[in-house]
Request: fold
Amino acid sequence: MTRRIVMFSSWGPGNFQTALEFCDDYTETRLALLVSDRAETPSTRLAQRRGIELFVHPIEGGYDPNRAGSRSRRIAALEPVLHRLQRLEREDGPIDLIVLAFRRILAGPILDQFAARMINVHPSDLSVFNIADRRPRYVGIDGLSRAIADGNPTTRTSVHKVTAAVDEGQLICLGPELRFEGSRDSRHDIEAHEARQKQCSDRVALRKALEIWFHGAPEPFAIF
Reply:
């Protein structure tokens, strides 16, 4: 039986390409849909070249769970995405896994229905905890830049299960470490480091996470 993967991508195409390559190697899996919040990206162009169905829906603005009204606006913005996923299941059968390489935070009914089948590619090391509360230190969109600002000599990608708590789901694996080279005060150097990490850590971590998800592994998560 074919197992279906849905990919959420804001730019790409590294993680999307990794998922495509996984499906090419394991023919019992199929990339059924790419969801993007932008119309013209490397990922959407790759999807069109490969004949992958594409759903584009802009989700503007940030999401602050502590700001009144922010969550309800985000839930309303995500309704068309939720409806598209529900239609895919009605027409094609169950979605086995949703992979998030997405610079937007999900909330509300889309998580209620699909979080147990979602994994997230996060650009910082979620095995590093705050001493005070034992919660991951580098959560959120700016996790990588904060890890660099804290003076960490290396950074790495995490892949984790999705929960309502942002970036706090169970770790599946950590990608290879990448040494930071450059000025920690330079936006250019930080962005260049992030681009390198997408290639050398994101892709390795996601590939391993897909293998663990679909084929199992004896350890709770893998570390490279």
